[in-house]
Amino acid sequence: MVTVQQVAVIPFQKNPALQVLLIRKLPDGSWGVPKGGIADHGNDFREAARLECLEEAGADGRLGPDFVGEFSYWRADQEYHVRVLVMEVTGLRDRYRERGYRERRWVSINEAVRIVGRDPLRWLVRELPRWVADDENASRPGTAPDRGV
To answer: Which of 11, 97, 23, 101 lies closest to 61 in space, CA to CA?
Structure first.
């Protein structure tokens, strides 16, 4: 079986404190970030990231230059491999494709780490302040520890 390639986006803003835009399926899905398959977007990770964020969260912005991590998970006998980008949100739409069945919420880093549903994603969110730091000594991206999602 072929592994499905996906991309996820950690949308953030500095307002003035660093916040993450989380989403979940209504009425009671687990909290996460926009993600989706790249095959639907011409196998272009960056274009897929931008469009998934618009469709699922109504957010647009500037994608970071590099992937900040990756993780894999299984669902219904299918393996998914997810590469993760960050995006500074510059615009938030009131109307977007999945608005009727997704909730979105700005939360602090600590709150996001507490409520995000997948352990590897939780680790990546925890490291977000290092990747968006203004100073030149910011940490380099890495791979989230595999904790059997």
So the answer is: 11
pTM reported for the whole predicted model: 0.87
Per-residue pLDDT tens digits of the chain, which is 149 residues long: 899 999 999 999 998 899 999 999 999 999 999 999 999 888 899 999 999 999 999 999 999 999 999 999 998 999 999 999 999 999 999 999 999 999 999 999 999 999 999 889 999 999 999 988 743 344 344 444 443 33
Do the domain assignments include residue 142? no
Ranges of H-type helices in 23-68 = 45-57
Q: What is the CATH number of the domain that holds 124?
A: 3.90.79.10
Q: How far is CA 77 from CA 2, 74, 104, 122, in A?
A: 11, 6, 29, 23
- Classify residue 143: in a domain, yes or no: no
